[in-house]
Design goal:
By secondary structure, this protein is of the alpha+beta class. The chain contains six helices and twelve strands. Strands 1, 8, 9 and 12 form a four-stranded mixed β-sheet that branches.
Length: 243
């Protein structure tokens, strides 16, 4: 939604990062020492050691972690998730306790340097209490969502909307912002959020959200064990000064 030209002020957003957070680990790298089989084995051992019990079968919680350049994990919890957490509170509380006990996280590496990266997986309690097996790796059972024509086609459409709906006479963004959104089971985009938050960014962020929502084509939703599932997508956008 383009702002009226009566807005005469000029906003500059300068975002400086020593290292950009990767949206996912590079090919061949994993977030946990020993691989994801080891991660889920360690989680199952924790549940058994603590004598914990499972949750209702329908509960699933998508875990999104940011592993920083030192290997320290941070659970990403967004305001838009409140309803989901309430509905799956048992799964959320269970995985929260478990993740705090795990010590073998490792950062991503790019050009020989440690960098922060995101890692996500669906936590399904019944898998750890009823269906667990030594080679369990839920990440291998996820089919990524797809946009018609591919992700580059999606980006092209969003950038086209940027030029149509963002008032570059008002905003002069600089730096990297990450757009977070969910792709629902019907292929629609929802719960769009943008980070990092910077001063005077509210109107600019609303315009970015509007540009994303203006893309009307639906995605082919992600699948978990061949069943459509919500998927949390992350897209970093680099803005350069237009000066």
């Amino acid at each position: 939604m383009k702002k009226p030209f009566s807005l005469l002020f000029f906003l500059i957003f300068e975002v400086v990062f020593s290292q950009t957070t990767l949206t996912k680990y590079p090919e061949g790298q994993v977030a946990y020492q020993g691989g994801y089989n080891q991660l889920f084995t360690d989680m199952q051992h924790y549940f058994l050691k603590k004598g914990l019990t499972t949750c209702p079968d329908a509960e699933v919680y998508w875990v999104v972690l940011k592993i920083d350049e030192t290997g320290k994990p941070f659970l990403i919890k967004r305001q838009s998730e409140e309803a989901t957490i309430k509905k799956n509170n048992c799964a959320y509380e269970l995985v929260l306790k478990c993740l705090g006990s795990l010590k073998n996280w490792q950062p991503a590496v790019v050009d020989g340097k440690n960098v922060a990266a995101y890692f996500q997986f669906p936590f399904i309690p019944k898998d750890f209490f009823d269906n667990f097996h030594p080679d369990y790796d839920i990440t291998s059972l996820i089919t990524q969502p797809e946009f018609p024509g591919g992700i580059e086609e999606f980006k092209k459409k969003v950038f086209k909307n940027f030029h149509g709906f963002i008032d570059w006479n008002t905003f002069n963004p600089r730096g990297t912002f990450t757009v977070f959104f969910e792709i629902d089971t019907d292929g629609k985009i929802s719960n769009i959020e943008i980070e990092p938050k910077v001063a005077n960014s509210e109107l600019f962020f609303e315009d970015i959200k509007y540009a994303v929502k203006r893309v009307k084509e639906r995605w082919t939703p992600a699948k978990l064990r061949e069943t459509p599932t919500k998927f949390k997508y992350r897209w970093p956008i680099r803005f350069n000064s237009i000066d």
